[in-house]
Amino acid sequence: LLDEGQFPKGSMGPKVQACVNFIEQGGAQAIITSIDHIQDALLGKTGTHFKK
After folding, report:
1. Is the torsion defined by CA of 21, 29, 38, 2 positive or negative?
2. How many whole angstroms from its chain centre is CA 42?
3. Is this prediction's pTM over 0.90?
4. What is the pLDDT of residue 11?
5. How many CA atoms lie within 13 A of 13 on its CB side?
6. Which of 1, 15, 32, 50 lies deepest, with the highest CB count within 10 Å?
7. pLDDT at position 9, please?
């Protein structure tokens, strides 16, 4: 989806790319969320989650 331009560079693109890079380098998971929703994101209730 990144290669197709689904995530614009000024929007989610850099965040998604950072998560992909993190997972590819051995990270277990990555989450995109706002600081206001971090607790719910860690519980899996909100946010965009990446896992290998």
Report:
1. positive
2. 13
3. no
4. 84
5. 10
6. 50
7. 82
**Pair 2, 16: CB distance under 8 Å:** yes
Residue position matching structure tokens 């950072």: 18
Measure the CA–CA gap between 6 and 18, rounded to whole angstroms.
15
Backbone angles phi, psi at 45, to 5 degrees: -90, -20
Q: Which residue has the tokens 């990270």?
A: 27
pLDDT in tens, the chain (52 residues): 788 888 888 889 999 999 999 999 999 999 999 999 999 999 999 999 999 8
Q: Spell 1-20 as b/e; 16+ CB within 10 A means b.
A: eeeeeeeeeeebeeebeebe
